[in-house]
Amino acid sequence: MDVKRIISGIVGIPIVLGIILWGNLFAFFAFVLLVTIFCVYEINEMFCKKSLKLPLLFLYGATVILSSTATFCPQYEGIFVSYILFFIAFFIYALLTTQELFDTLKKVSLFAFTLLFVVISLSHLILIYKVELVDKAHYLLFLI
Q: Of 135, 34, 115, which is closest to residue 75 (Cα–Cα)?
């Protein structure tokens, strides 16, 4: 067994449970944003091993914008605004990286995968948390 994983589980699980059960919306937003940025960094490191580096500053900016819309917009508008901002960031990235068509398509698809798989899916945890605050229930505990 990996000792690092055991220690991070022992330390991380009480922190996650504490934020879910007793934190407010902004503490949960900060936690989700921190986890999302760490996940984006890890995915970019995996891409770097295959010599497919994406610009981290652009990815971090898109991460903050998409996570913020889930927090600061009303429930359903947040989802709509997130997807609009995703596609705007997607096309700006495509325009900035057009050098060779095949290389551009590969990088743009990896960028889209990173934003869809990590950023938008984790920002929906914020929307679930907002529903929890209204219903006074603990739906996120089911996801753990």
A: 135
